[in-house]
Amino acid sequence: MSINNKLVPLVNNKKLIFAVLFLCSAISRADSLSGIFPDVLSGRNTGTHDQLVKLAERAIENNQSVVHLLRDVSLRFSHEKGFITFSGSDLRKLNKTYSMGTDVMYALVPPSKTKNISLGDFGNDRAEIKVELDETTNTYFNYRYIFNISVKLKLKSEYGATGISKNQLDDVYGIVASHKLGTADVDSVRISGDQTVVVELSKGPSVKVNVGTVSRR
Questions:
Q1: Are strands 114-120 and 82-87 parallel, antiparallel or unpaired?
Q2: How do strand 128-133 and strand 114-120 relate by DSSP bridges?
Q3: Is 18 helix (H, G, I), strand (E, B) or coil?
Q4: Angstrom distances, CA of residue 192 to CA of 53, 68, 164, 188, 196
Q5: Residue 122 DSSP symbol
Q6: Do 56 and 72 form a contact (C-beta atoms < 8 A)?
Q7: Per residue in 131-152, pLDDT tens?
Q8: Whole-angstrom Cα distance, residue 43 to residue 36?
Q9: Whole-prediction pTM value?
Q10: How far apart are CA 153 and CA 137, in angstroms?
């Protein structure tokens, strides 16, 4: 038997192991969310402050960011052909006892301006995220690389992403990033770690930023 033929079973076994690990991870995430959302209805579901608290505790336990939570909840509800809406007032109440992460995360989702956050399938057979603000809003954060760069985000009164997958928030709309080197639309966000994401822009290179993890105040 040639060396190449001997390697084939090893490669296949590695693929099988990775597939099993991914499946176990997906089942674990689904099970933990089932405890928070035991009865998911098709169509609209209304979220509660108590559910937000449970999500925050889940994120702390798993050392995850708000971006992870948005992804997981959106995928959970889209699987049942439904979506859930949390009110801005419940988000602000949560923010008194839990931190959402760094200034980058607060620039992406400003609690003081948020009217609603909706996650799931809005009837388009795909997982989506939609944030509604009181009005078009400018937020700011410092991007730390070799030196600090002040970045302004212009958030439309409705913005979000229409293509959510395992580690990717695609087809982002309603967010424009500006700094002293130029202006560009945010096209997608990729989860690259427990507290980092890579932001793809319509112009220029992608940017890796630290959004932090959820923590108790």
A1: antiparallel
A2: antiparallel
A3: helix
A4: 25, 11, 15, 13, 6
A5: S
A6: no
A7: 999 999 999 999 876 668 899 9
A8: 18
A9: 0.84
A10: 8
Collapsing DSSP states into helix, strand and coil, what is residue 55?
helix
Nearest one of 122, 177, 128, 127 to 154, comparing CA atoms? 177
Backbone dihedral region for residue 120 (phi beyond 0: left; psi -120 to 50: alpha; all else: beta): left
Q: Closest Cα partner for 164 from 79, 51, 95, 58?
A: 79
Residue (of 63, 120, 65, 66) closest to 91 by Cα position: 66
User: Which single residue is written with the structure tokens 């410092």?
Assistant: 142
Total Cβ atoms within 10 A of residue 76: 22
Residue type, 65: S
**Beta-sheet strands, E only, within 40-192:** 43-46, 82-87, 98-99, 114-120, 128-133, 137-144, 148-164, 168-179, 182-191
Residue 96 phi/psi, 5° resolution?
A: -75, -25
CA atoms of 94 and 91, how far apart (whole Å): 5
Structure confidence at residue 192 (pLDDT): 95
Structure tokens at 200: 């793809």
Question: CB–CB of 153/159 below 8 Å?
Answer: no
Give the separation between CA 175 and CA 139, rounded to whole angstroms: 11
pLDDT at 187 (0 to 100): 97
The residue to which tokens 């490669």 are assigned: 11
pLDDT in tens, 72-124: 999 999 999 999 999 999 999 999 999 999 999 999 999 999 999 999 999 99
